[in-house]
Amino acid sequence: MGAMAASDKPTADGADWAGASETTLLDEALALAPERGWTWAMTYAAGAAAGFSRGEVELLLPEGPRDLAALWSRRCDAAALAALADVDPASLKVRERIHRAVSARVEAAMAQPAATRRWTGFLALPGHLPLGLRLLWESADGLWVWAGDTATDENHYSKRAILAEVLGGVLLVRLAAGEEAAAARLDRRIAQVMAFERWKASLKLAGLAQDAATALGRMRYAWG
């Protein structure tokens, strides 16, 4: 992608300029990341390729490669939701919704497999792991919203935590072993999660019975 001359840079309000500039910088970063990784050096090189000074790059991306990594994750989130736009989740069983959602999100990331491979390595570093987990959570949240989840209790959080783990694992398998292995991993994990949810539901019922028995016992013997 050619450099953007200063006169060609967006001149609308600040938000429009920042958004368009971030898009341009990310495009350049995706071309450079396979060789250079997600680093400050790559970030400055992407900025130079887009026609930005180091100062402008630092203004737009104060955390450099971390900001670019977040932009790539969110672009993939948007692409996945766009791919799912014509799918009516209400017409699918829950396991089918999750299969569609995870598959769409993984395919979005695989539009740039080499850059995504370096991206996963970058976010796996100890200093970047919290960011990686937060981005996975964001992805899972968006997919659950698409799937029609309206839970507001603890299930809201457990569903997203589980889906984040499934999504991350399937993406890593896709990068390492290919589409067939990733599909098998996804099917297996969905089956495990559905079995866990059934077990959890039975556990809740048993827990309610135990709580009721305990309460009655305390009333009878004046415990507590």
What does this structure look like?
This protein is an all-alpha fold and 224 residues long. The protein has two domains: 1-62, no CATH class; 69-221. It has helices spanning 14-36, 40-49, 54-60, 65-83, 94-109, 113-124, 129-147, 154-177, 179-221. 29% of the residues are buried. Residues 1-12, 205-209 and 211-224 have low confidence and may be disordered.
What's a quick, concise take on this entry?
By secondary structure, the protein is mainly alpha-helical. It is built from nine helices and no strands.
Give the domain tally.
Answer: 2
Number of helices: 9
Number of strands: 0
Task: Give, in order, the helices and strands.
Answer: HHHHHHHHH
Distance between the termini: 72 Å
Calculate the mean pLDDT score and round it. 86
Largest β-sheet summary: none
Structural class by secondary-structure content: mainly alpha
Q: Specify Rg, calculated over alpha carbons.
A: 22 Å
Low-confidence stretches: 1-12, 205-209, 211-224
What is the 3D form? Answer: globular
Q: What percentage of residues falls in helices of 4 or more residues?
A: over 70%
Strand content bin: under 5%
Which secondary structure elements does this structure contain, and how are they paired or packed?
Layout: H1 14-36, H2 40-49, H3 54-60, H4 65-83, H5 94-109, H6 113-124, H7 129-147, H8 154-177, H9 179-221
Helix pairs in contact: 1-2, 1-6, 4-5, 4-7, 5-7, 5-8, 5-9, 6-7, 7-8, 8-9
